[in-house]
Amino acid sequence: MTDLPPLAGFAVGITAARRADELGALLVRKGATVRYGPAIRIVPVTDDTELRAATRLLLDEPVDAVVATTGIGFRGWVEAAEGWGLGERLLDRLAHVDVLTRGPKAKGAVRASGLSEVYSPASESNAELLRHLLDAGVAGQRIAVQLHGEPLPYFADTLRAAGADVVEIPVYRWVGPADPGPLDRLIDAVLDGSIDAMPFTSAPAAASMLAMARRTGRHAALVDALTARVVVACVGPITAGPLAALGIPTVQPRRARIGALARTLAEVLIERSPRLCAAGREIELRGQVAIVDGELRDVAPAPMAVLRALAEHPGRVVSRRELTAALPGGGEEHAVETAIGRLRASLGESRLVQTVVKRGYRLATVPGEDR
């Protein structure tokens, strides 16, 4: 018996732009196969008039607090201000106000600029940061919020509703991928059943993937796949927003960190992997592979669909009609016979799948039983 990595046999699709390689490396180390289909890209706005106007507004009028949501965004803001000859004034202004940071990356960027933060939530979530501000009271205060690629309407609107004057600082933006081909192929892979999990690290990536599916007539099929079969993991509730709005269930780590996201995804995939005993053999189903007594065996999509249908009730006879319905895209009954033959070959032992004459097929439950 060979010791296999925990995610051996699983295929994971990644749509992230920033930190995609880091997330992919974590999953590959756990044994997963990773396919990349960037759904967004980051466009700096160092020359953007909106960013410059917001910075001027911050310098010309008093401000009580500044919220730094990302390290890359805060650094980009300071660099842009330096390019306009405003860097020293900006840092001096920030040195005399309360600076709050969402997580360690933002905290590191703030400290690297010679500043210090007054608060950073342990959860690294915008929600806890918002609660802290509201609990302290924001009525009559002027608060600057450095955006992280997209507007934060809930965050900003909640502060405004509590009486704050909010200045939004747009440091960079999310836009669609320069090459949509990889994302297009990743969506196809989800639909054909060859992707088992989709982790998301930002709401714009999820929204962009759904938008592409909608433009190409695959939206309903994608939502069905993400709802019924694919494990969807999100780094936090804001990221999950576009998916939750469509009723797609997601799993989330307790801490909004890339490492925690990879661990949570691995735990859920392993937990949901069917395990059974057939003809005295231990079998585990992972993605497009079956592990038979610790040995990994690749199984094509049609035979795997048949195996999963049989594994739902080991020992029960499953009719050809039921198995036909389980095949990707449906088919005819003779396609089931072909899939059964390929399944037996893939498993390496024909007696694991029994033929019950005129009734259908079943997984053997008694050691030594023949077809």
Outline of the structure:
This protein is an alpha/beta fold and 371 residues long. It has helices spanning 20-29, 49-60, 71-83, 87-94, 104-112, 126-136, 153-161, 181-191, 203-215, 219-228, 237-244, 258-271, 301-311, 320-326, 333-347; strands at 11-14, 33-36, 41-44, 65-68, 98-101, 142-146, 165-169, 172-175, 197-200, 231-234, 275-278, 281-286, 289-292, 295-298, 353-356, 360-363.
Order of the strands making up the biggest sheet: 5-4-6-7
Give the class-level CATH name of the largest domain: Alpha Beta
Percent in strands: 15-25%
Q: How many DSSP H or I helices?
A: 15
Estimate the mean pLDDT confidence.
89
Distance from N terminus to C terminus (CA atoms, Å) equals 26 Å
Low-confidence stretches: 367-371
Structural class by SSE content: alpha/beta
Helix residue percentage? 40-55%
CATH architectural designation of the largest domain: 3-Layer(aba) Sandwich
Gyration radius (Cα, Å) is: 26 Å
Shape: elongated
| Strand runs, count | 16
**What is the total domain count?**
3
Q: CATH topology of the largest domain, what is it called?
A: Rossmann fold
Please describe the biggest sheet, giving its number of strands, its sense, and whether it closes into a barrel.
4 strands, parallel
